[in-house]
Amino acid sequence: MATISTMTWLILGKRTVLILFTALGLVACGQKGALFIPTDPEARDRAMFPQVLVPDTRPDTPAPTPP
Q: If DSSP states are collapsed to H, E and C, what string results for the chain?
């Protein structure tokens, strides 16, 4: 009767853990349903992705220039 060496069990164990974590990661990521760009009025004031990375520091209204 052939026995499986300890090294083989370690390799099989690591592969099993890797497969389980990969499957768990694929199942747990993402949101359900189709992705879409919101068009409701509330979405107009939300930050877009580039605005999140580099926030706009300019004031909303221009500063008055002295005469």
A: CCCCCHHHHHHHHHHHHHHHHHHHHHHHCCCCCCCCCCCCHHHHHCCCHHHHHCCCCCCCCCCCCCC
